[in-house]
Amino acid sequence: MKRELTDGFALGESLRELVGHRPAQQQCLRSDDELFLVVHEVPLAGVPERVSLGFWKHPTDGWFGPGGKCGLRKLEALLDRYEDVVDGHEATIETIETATSLFPIIKHARPLARSSRNLAAALDRAVLFSENDREIRTLRDQAREIERAAELLFHDSKLSLDFLQAQQAEDQQEATERLNRIAFRLNLLAGFFLPLVALGGLFGMNVALPDVFRPLFWVIFSVGLLMGGVLVFLVGRKTAADQGWLSSVRNRARARE
C-alpha cells in the first residue's frame, strides 16, 4: 500500500481535502492558518516520475517536515542537493570534448530547470501566505538562484553542443579539402605519366611499320605527346578553378555568418 503525502501530519480536514492524494505538482496550499508545501526531490535523468516531499506549517507550532517537527532543515538540504547537481554539471561541461558525452547533461538539464522553476514558484506562494516568515523568504531567494543557475546550465549545454557540432563539421570539411587536394595531385601525376607509359608500350611493340609511315613516326609521336600535355593542362586548370570557386563561396558564407 502506497503511503500518502499527508501521512504523519495532523492537517485540518479542509486542508487535507485540498491536498488530496499524492499531488503531482509543486505547490503551496492554505486553509485557515495552515500551510502545506509540496516540493519535488531532485529529478533523475531519464526518469519521468517525481518524488514528492511535504512540509506543513502549524498555526502555532511552526513547520513540520518529513519525519516530524524539524522545521525547514530538510527543505534547505533539498535546495543544497539541487545546487550540488547543477554545479557538478557546470564543472563537467568545461571538460567535455565530445557531443556524446554532453548529451546526458542536456537530457538532465531540462527537467532540472523545469523542476527548480516550479519549486521557486511554490516557495513564492509560501512567502505570499506567510509574509513574516523570514526563513521561508531566505529559502525562496535560494530557490530563485538555483532556478537561474539551472536555466543557464541548460542554455550553456545547448550552446556547447552547437559549438562541438560546428567544430566537428569544420574539421570534417578541412579533411575533405585535404583529400581533394591529394586526389588532384595524384590525378596530375597520373596524367603526366600516362604518355610515358604509352611511349614505353609504343617502343616495346615489335611491329614492322610500312615504309610509308616510318618517316611520320616521330611526327605522330610528338603530336600525341603534345595533345597529352594540353589535356593535362586543361584538366588541371579547370580543377583548380573549380576549387577556387568553392573556396570563395565558403568564404562568403562564413562572412555572412
Name its key features.
257 residues; alpha+beta; 4-stranded antiparallel β-sheet; 5 helices
What is the terminal separation in angstroms? 60 Å
How does the helix and strand content classify structurally? alpha+beta
* Form type: rod-shaped
Query: Helicity level, as a percent range?
Result: 55-70%
Radius of gyration: 38 Å
Query: Which spans have pLDDT < 50 for at least 5 consecutive residues?
Result: none
H/E order of the elements?
A: HEEEEHHHH
**Order of strands across the widest beta sheet?**
1-2-3-4
Percent of residues in beta strands: 5-15%
SS summary, helix count:
5
- Mean of pLDDT: 78
Largest sheet: 4 strands, antiparallel
Number of strands: 4
Short description:
66% of the residues lie in helices and 9% in strands.
Description:
The longest helix is centred in the middle third of the chain and has 70 residues, at 134-203. The protein has a four-stranded antiparallel β-sheet with strand order 1-2-3-4, with helices on both faces. The protein is built from five helices and four strands. With 257 residues, it is α+β, with helices and mostly antiparallel strands. α2 (73-93) packs antiparallel against α3 (99-129), α2 runs parallel beside α4 and α3 runs antiparallel to α4.
